[in-house]
Amino acid sequence: MLIRAFADADWQQVWPFFDEVVAEEEVFALPRGLTSERALRAWVGPPPGCTVVAVEDERVLGTARAAPNLPGPGAHVATAGVVVAPHARGRGVGRALAEHVLALSREQGFLAVQVDAVVETNAPAVALGKALGFSIVGTVPEAFEHPVHGLVGLHVMHRRL
Known about the structure:
Layout: E1 2-5, H1 11-24, H2 36-43, E2 50-56, E3 59-68, E4 77-84, H3 93-107, E5 112-119, H4 123-131, E6 135-146, E7 150-160
Parallel strand pairs: 4-5
Antiparallel strand pairs: 1-2, 2-3, 3-4, 5-7, 6-7
């Protein structure tokens, strides 16, 4: 598996699984029916943000991004996200992408990474975050309407770099 910078041509492979994950409404607080163009603009932002993909034999397995969490006085803290294609789950792709984004964030001079909306029922994401040194600094109760579990909390997770 190779992790490299996102190229425009990658969206052709990323969009189907990105759309599928959003449509499941289990891990991302993004609206169902998001167009490809809007999703691309939301996921792949301008510098100093960065987006990467994990590829194997030219097949995209997942994608990750990091960007300033807030502008101005909050720009020294990054936010990050990872999306793994369903066919590639359970193979360490998410961990590799998360580690890569943490290293990129450190290289770009960010002092910490804050993930604002980790769905508390997303056990793999919560476990990965904790394994990578993130702490849950708070939970917004009933902030996410999960299709199976109903109203659940959104964790805010933080890690110094």
